[in-house]
Design goal:
6-stranded parallel sheet; single chain; alpha/beta; 8-stranded mixed sheet; about 40% helix
Length: about 425
């Protein structure tokens, strides 16, 4: 199966290595598999990334120089971020957080003061028609909202849709309705779109997801022991990997861990890895340890040795970290209120889910007392990733998606 398009421009609010954003990482991995220099026969003839000069998703300050660079064989064009009115933006954010309705005008003001680049929009207007398709991600940012409306008939969005207050705004529903197609990361995400926007909009989408390959570099047999010695990990531990934010429910996890009571509770630790710091607490409990940002090898080793990976977030459209931990044989513990991660766990048999703190405590006790269950769950998760999220399977679904959207040469042929 081959891609029915020859050229693709991908529009992202930011682009580069180790940015910490799941949507950007997922999109980056996807386009690299169909880049012109890729060895796969279904690659694109022309692929460009159009993005801003920003690197920090909190400040959106210009970091890179405007202009074009070649990064890992892909042409990246960066455009400066426009000034914005933070008072207007934050006022709208607080209103949505408190479930206060915004008028359409207020919603547009909110989006007008998100991350914008008039130079980027001008470039889309001038050169967008040179490409068979324009791919935007994720749904939340202004670069997707305004950019996809320039040529909606050839625009496709990877929304990374969450069940959050932003998704319920009128202008978001209009945006998803107007574009040519949607690429979902999970069936639960498509179900959410159906709930928010109706069947007609949801039916424009295809579930594709992200691909993963078995790690090509084997880990040294002694590497795990060396890592445990380095970090003084002489007891079982649960692992959290991701941004250290209350928005990811890390506060819930730490509080639950602090109150965990069990005959063997004093032998269990919670290890945190990832970007940022825990600013929402004055101090961590004695059995919670923050290792900060670790190397890829150390992350793999920590996943491989963990009793389980805990993903407490309820706002996920895919969750890359679940797939990574499963490839290392570690089971996952997820929040029942996150439809996407719960669906992953149920379909794979690779983990367990909890609804409240007491259920999380029961799962912790269960895994501590049943190492064979831990191994069984982890192995089931690994097989699920290999079967469903192998790159060949994912690219097959991507090809089907673009046929479904009737973009590029397929559209021209039918006309």
């Amino acid at each position: 199966m081959t891609l029915p398009i020859d050229s693709l421009a991908v529009v992202l609010p930011r682009y580069g290595r180790s940015l910490g954003g799941g949507a950007e990482a997922l999109t980056k991995a996807l386009v690299e598999q169909i880049a012109p220099q890729c060895s796969r026969s279904r690659r694109l003839r022309r692929l460009e990334i159009w993005t801003t000069c920003a690197i920090d998703h909190r400040t959106w300050e210009n970091h890179f120089r405007p202009g074009s660079t070649l990064e890992e064989g892909i042409l990246v064009r960066r455009f400066p971020v426009d000034p914005r009115n933070l008072d207007v933006f934050i006022r709208a954010e607080l209103a949505m957080r408190d479930s206060r309705p915004l008028t359409v005008e207020e919603q547009l003001d909110w989006m007008a003061n998100s991350v914008n680049s008039s130079a980027l929009y001008a470039h889309i207007a001038k050169h967008g028609k040179e490409f068979d398709a324009l791919l935007f991600a994720p749904y939340l940012f202004a670069t997707t909202f305004w950019g996809s409306q320039i040529y909606p008939d050839r625009s496709v969005i990877i929304p990374c849709l969450h069940n959050e207050h932003y998704a319920y705004q009128d202008i978001i529903r209009v945006m998803l309705r107007e574009v040519q197609g949607l690429i979902f990361n999970a069936h639960a995400e498509q179900d959410l779109c159906r709930e928010l926007c109706g069947e007609t909009v949801a039916a424009k989408g295809v579930v594709v997801g992200m691909g993963f390959e078995q790690p090509t570099l084997a880990l040294d047999e002694d590497a795990g022991a060396k890592l445990r010695a380095k970090y003084k990990l002489d007891t079982p531990y649960l692992l959290y990997s991701g941004r250290k934010e209350t928005g990811k429910n890390l506060d819930l996890l730490i509080n639950a861990f602090e109150r965990f009571e069990c005959d063997c509770a004093d032998t269990l630790q919670l290890v945190l890895i990832g970007s940022g710091e825990v600013h929402f607490r004055d101090a961590l409990p004695s059995n919670v340890r923050d290792f900060g940002f670790v190397s890829e090898e150390e992350k793999r080793l920590l996943m491989r040795g963990a009793l389980a990976l805990v993903q407490p977030s309820v706002n996920e459209s895919f969750s890359i970290v679940l797939m990574e931990s499963w490839l290392e044989g570690a089971p996952s513990i997820v929040h029942a209120q996150c439809a996407v991660t719960r669906q992953h766990v149920v379909e794979s048999g690779g983990g367990l889910y909890f609804s409240d703190e007491s259920e999380l405590h029961e799962i912790m006790r269960l895994l501590l007392g049943a190492p064979e269950l831990r191994d069984h769950l982890g192995a089931s998760g690994r097989e699920h990733v290999k079967r469903v999220y192998d790159w060949e399977a994912v690219i097959d679904r991507l090809c089907e998606a673009f046929r479904h959207f009737k973009l590029g040469r397929t559209q021209a042929t039918e006309e």
